Amino acid sequence: MKNKQSPGKNPTFRRRSICLIMAGVVASGSLPIQALAAAAAAPAAPSAAGGATGAATSPMAGDPYNFSLTQLGRGYPITLHGVDATDSVGFDVPANQVVTGANVTLQYTYSPALLPDLSQINVMVNDVVAGSIPLPKENAGALQTSKVEIPAKLITEFNRLSLQFIGHYTMGCENPLHSSLWARVSNESVLALQTTPLPMKDDLSMMPLPFFDRRDMRMLNLPFVFAAAPDNGTLEAAGTLSSWFGALASYRGSRFPVQINALPAKGNGVVLVSSEGASQIGALEIAAPKGPTLTMVTNPNDPNGKLLLVTGRNAEEVKRAAAAAALGNKAVAGNSVVIDKLQPVAPRKPYDAPNWLPTDRPVKLSELIDAKRLNVSGYNPGDITIPLNFPPALSSWRQDGAKLDLHYRYTPQPRSSNSSLIVSFNDGLIKSDVLLPRDKLDQGLLAAIKSDALEREMSVRLPLETAALQSRLQLRYMYDYVKQGECADIIIDNVRGSIDPESTIDLRGYDHFMAMPNLGVFKDAGFPFTRMADLSETAVVLPDNASDADLAAYLTALGRFGSATGYPATGVAVTQAAQIAKFADKDLLVMASGQNQPLLKQWADHLPTLVTGDKQRFDLSDLALRVGGWLGLDPKAAQRRTRLQMAFSGGDPTSYLTGFESPLDGSRSVVVLAGGDKLGLSQIMSALASKEAESGAVQGSLVAVRGESIEPLLAEQQYFVGSMSPLRMLRWWLSQHVVSMFLMVALGILLLGGLAYLTLRAKARKRLNA
C-alpha cells in the first residue's frame, strides 16, 4: 500500500513544505537544517566500540552534498565530438530533502582549433540550460576548471545533468565530424547540492524509506540498536534486516554500526527489543509488545530522524517481525502493526538468488535492463551495456559458451560500407555484424523493411571460462557517416538502432561444480553461504562475548551477502563455538577478533595460519608472484601450493581470511574472518569494500589484511563443492587422472579382447563339434 501523503511521492506536499520552511525563516530569522553527509566516497569510520555516532551525524547548514561524475556512474571521461554533441548523467535527490542551491564544477579541455565566438559548452539540467561556458583561444588544449551555478528550481527528485558541446572550426563550409571538433570533460568534475530536510510521517507504508532511499547514492550507514547484549535469536533477526538493507543498497555498499542501550545522536536507526514488558532506551519508551511488532517513531535525539522498532515478547517473535519487514513491507501501513501470521509459500532452491541469472530457462534481456535503454540513435551512440550476474560455482568445463539469441533492428542507410553492430563481452570482441545499406539489400530484405527499420538476428556464444561473476554484455551500433561533398555535409538525426527486449541468454546445461577454497568468489558473491539465497544452510559462529565492533562486522557481512543475492537472510543461524556440533550440517562463517574465538585453537591443524598473542605463523606460496584465474574448474591451473612456512614473534597482529573443508562434514565449507585485535574485523570488512579488493586482490585460500592493504598468501584448492551429471563427472575425473585413464583403457582393451577370444573359441568349438 502506498502512502499518498509521503513527501517522496506527493509534489504538492513538497511545495507546501518548502513554503512552510521559508515562512519559518522569515518569522524566526533562523532555519534548523539537517544537511546531508559531505561526501559519498568517504563514510565515517566506526568508533572503537563499534558505534556509528559520528557516521550518523550530519554537517551544519550550507554544507554541500557532493558527487563526482564517477560516483554518478560515469567511469570514464566524457568525450564530445562534432558540431553538436551531448552526453548525460543522472542524479537523484533523497525523498526527505529539498534542494536550495546547486552548482557543478567542470574540469575540461577542448580543441585549439575551435572558433571562440561560435563554440561553447552548455550545462543543462533536465534539458534546461543552466549556464554556458565559453571556450577562449588562449586556454585551448590545457585543463580548465569552471563553476556553473544551477538554479534550484530546475532540480526535482529524478534529474539529468547534460553537457552539450557546440563546436566550429571555420566560418565557411565544414565537416560536421572533423577531428578538430572535440571537448573532453573529466569524470572527476563535481556536482554539489545544498539541501534542507523535509518532515516525514511515521508511516510504515513508506518503507524502506527513510531508512534506505534509492535516490541516495551514498553508502548506506544505518545504526542497529539493542536494549542489552543481544541473544542469538535477536542477532538472527538483525541479520535478516541488515541483509535486506544490503540488498537494497546494492552497488552503494552498506555498513551497520551497533549501539547497546543508546540511540543514534542524529539520523535514522533500527531498534530490536525482545521483552515481555515495556522497555526504555534513552528518551525512547517502548511499549510492551503484544506479538511480533513493527513500529516507526521519530528519533528523540533528532526530529528529522526515524527509528524502526522491531519488537516481540521473545526472540522468535522478533525474528518473525524482522522477516515481515524484509519480505512483506509493501503490505503494511500506519505507524505500528502486529504480525499475526507469516508463512513462506515456497522454500528457496540452490542458486535461485534474484540477482543471479537462472540456469533452468532462457532469460530475456528485458529482465536484465530497462527496455528503453535498448534503443539508441545517432551515428555513434555508445554502448548498450547489459549487466550479467552469473551464479557462482558455474562449471564451464568443456562448454561451448552461454548462448545469446539476439534480435535487433536498424535504419538501413542509402549507401555505406562500414556500418556494423558489435557484440562484446567484458570489453572483448565476440562478433561484428555488418549493417547492410539499402543499395546492398536483395528484394526479400527490402520487402522486410517496416517503418524504415530492418529486422535481423544473430546467435553467438559467450565464453564463460574466465568471465567474472559480475560481467557485462556490450552492444554497440556503429554507423558510417557518408560524406556528401563540399558544403553538402549535414548531420541528419535519422539513424536508429534497437535491440529486441525478447532476445535471450541461455545458461541451461551448465552444472555447479567448483574447486575450493576460493576467497575470490566469497568476496564477490558470498559463496558458499549464498548458495541458498536465504542462508538457510549457513551458521555464523560469533566470538564468545562479542563486542559491539564484532556485531557490527557480522551485520555488515550479512549486508554484503544480501547485496550479492538480492534477498534477505531469513534462514541464517547464529551460534558460538560451544554449540558448534548442532550445526555440523551447515557451511560455517567463523568470526574472531583477537583471541576470543576458541575454534581457532581447536581447528589449528586445518588453518594455514595461526596468530596467538605476539606469535604468528603463515603458510606461503608464489600466488602473489603469479596471479591466476579463479573461475576455472581445473585446480591445477590456478593452484599455488605451499612453498614456505614462516613463524615470527612481535609486530602488530595480522588480520586474515582463510577457508577450508569443514572438519564436521566433508561436504561443507568453513570461511574464517579473523581480526588481529578488537578492531580487526572492522578492518576486514572495510578492506573487502575497498578499491583494492574490487581489483581482484582477494583470492586464493589465505589472504592477509593490514589496514587497507590486502595480500594474497596461499592458493591451495583441496576439495570440491557442487555436482555434475554422472557422464560429465566421469569425463572430468579421467581428464584429471591421465594415468588412471590409460590404465582403465588398457583394462578395457584386455576385457574386450578376452571376451572376443572366449566368444571366438566358443564358436570354433561349436563348429568342430558339428
Which properties best describe this structure?
Jelly Rolls; 43 strands; 13 helices; disordered N terminus; globular
Give a short overview:
The chain is an alpha+beta fold.
Helices and strands, with pairings:
Elements: H1 11-28, H2 53-56, E1 65-68, E2 78-81, E3 84-92, E4 97-110, E5 120-125, E6 128-134, E7 144-150, E8 158-166, E9 182-185, E10 190-197, E11 220-221, E12 224-226, H3 232-249, E13 254-255, E14 258-260, E15 269-274, E16 279-281, E17 284-286, E18 293-298, E19 306-312, H4 315-328, E20 336-338, E21 363-364, E22 375-377, E23 383-389, E24 394-395, E25 402-410, E26 420-425, E27 428-434, H5 443-448, E28 454-462, E29 470-478, E30 496-499, E31 504-506, E32 511-516, H6 519-525, E33 538-541, H7 548-565, E34 573-575, E35 587-593, H8 599-602, E36 609-612, E37 615-620, H9 635-638, E38 644-649, E39 655-661, E40 669-675, H10 680-688, H11 691-697, E41 702-706, E42 709-714, E43 719-723, H12 726-736, H13 738-769
Parallel strand pairs: 11-13, 12-14, 12-15, 15-19, 33-34, 33-35, 35-40
Antiparallel strand pairs: 1-10, 2-9, 3-8, 4-7, 4-9, 4-10, 5-6, 5-8, 16-17, 18-19, 18-20, 21-31, 22-30, 23-29, 24-32, 25-28, 25-30, 25-31, 26-27, 26-29, 32-43, 36-37, 37-38, 39-40, 39-41, 41-42
Helix pairs in contact: 3-4, 3-7, 7-10
